[in-house]
């Protein structure tokens, strides 16, 4: 009999012991959730080729920091192979979401199929891609580059009364902005038979290449250059340097229009060397993470979320420059 009491006592002690380990949960309260798991996002960025790109990276990484997101960042130095490698690594690490700024439009099917099979949504930012299966990405958050090209051409036609010999500095070959900014510009030029692109070449969105290509244009056809259309401000600033070094007068004898509306472009407009720039807003960090939250909550998001753009010119540069965030 005594042994039964001893066994009962030990069993009771054991339960007490166990319950003493567990925090006592007041009756009626739900058990607190385990600490919420951090959102893990893999961000594959094109590179650091321009002031615009730096501003975009700062906006997206800054927003991740602000929201306590665990962001794995990869700078591809402008090479698609590096982006594909980064995405493959993100998939292996089982990130929750992939953010991709694709350097060029094509060549993404295989790695995006792997992401889809792994159940990882892909958010495209700033540049689009060409894929046969549009389910390979959830949405694209970007500007309308064709419209930016149209805006640049319409402004230049007005500025030159529809008559100009134009040299064009293209962005990165095969990239959505280079393809579409040229498409929009040429679409408008069909209305102006006396506006002619006499030279066009890629300068890869960089200031250094913009200067180099402009030097070659000046060397080969100086007398005929009346206007420059640059697919981004960094190349336009390089072209301005080349024109000045050749003793020419950028902003006066030669009219320049570019795209991005970075701080350097406003400084050049205030100095009278750049005539106009079309904004392409890079500050998309908050929108990217708001969109990620919607996607993870199972909400339907549009396939294309368009950033609105506007044109700035010398006349309003001075009073606007102080308000610019990038
Ligand atoms: C546009 C972006 C372009 C910018 C350039 O969304 O992809 O790439 O216009 C940048 O400055 O290099």
Automatic annotation (TrEMBL):
Family matches, as PROSITE patterns: PROKAR_LIPOPROTEIN
Keywords for this protein: Signal
Family annotation (Gene3D superfamilies): 3.40.50.2300
Matching CDD domains: PBP1_galactofuranose_YtfQ-like (cd06309)
Residues covered by the Periplasmic binding protein domain: 41-282
Family: Belongs to the bacterial solute-binding protein 2 family.
Protein's UniProt name: ABC transporter substrate-binding protein
């Amino acid at each position: 009999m005594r042994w039964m009491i001893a066994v009962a006592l030990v069993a009771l002690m054991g339960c007490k012991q166990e319950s003493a380990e567990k925090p006592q949960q007041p009756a009626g309260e739900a058990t607190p959730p385990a600490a919420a798991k951090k959102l893990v996002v893999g961000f594959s960025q094109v590179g650091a080729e321009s002031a615009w790109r730096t501003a975009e990276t700062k906006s997206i990484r800054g927003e991740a920091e602000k929201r306590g997101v665990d962001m794995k960042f990869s700078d591809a130095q402008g090479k698609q192979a590096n982006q594909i490698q980064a995405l493959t690594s993100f998939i292996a690490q089982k990130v929750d979401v992939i953010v991709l700024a694709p350097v060029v439009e094509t060549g993404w099917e295989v790695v995006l199929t792997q992401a889809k099979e792994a159940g990882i949504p892909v958010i495209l930012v700033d540049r689009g891609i060409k894929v046969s299966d549009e389910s390979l990405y959830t949405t694209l958050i970007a500007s309308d580059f064709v419209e930016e090209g149209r805006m640049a051409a319409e402004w230049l036609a007005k500025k030159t009364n529809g008559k100009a010999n134009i040299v064009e500095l293209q962005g990165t070959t095969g990239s959505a902005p280079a393809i579409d900014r040229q498409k929009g510009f040429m679409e408008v030029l069909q209305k102006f038979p006396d506006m002619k692109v006499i030279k066009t070449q890629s300068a890869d969105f960089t200031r250094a290449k913009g200067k180099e290509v402009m030097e070659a244009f000046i060397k080969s056809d100086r007398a005929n250059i009346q206007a420059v259309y640059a697919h981004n401000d960094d190349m336009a600033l390089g072209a301005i340097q080349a024109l000045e070094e050749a003793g020419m007068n950028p902003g006066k004898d030669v009219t320049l229009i570019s795209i991005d509306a970075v701080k350097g472009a406003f400084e050049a407009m205030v100095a009278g060397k750049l005539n106009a720039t079309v904004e392409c807003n890079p500050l998309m960090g908050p929108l990217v993470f708001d969109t990620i939250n919607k996607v993870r909550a199972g909400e339907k998001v549009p396939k294309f979320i368009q950033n609105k753009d506007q044109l700035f010119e010398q006349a309003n540069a001075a009073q606007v420059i102080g308000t610019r965030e990038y």
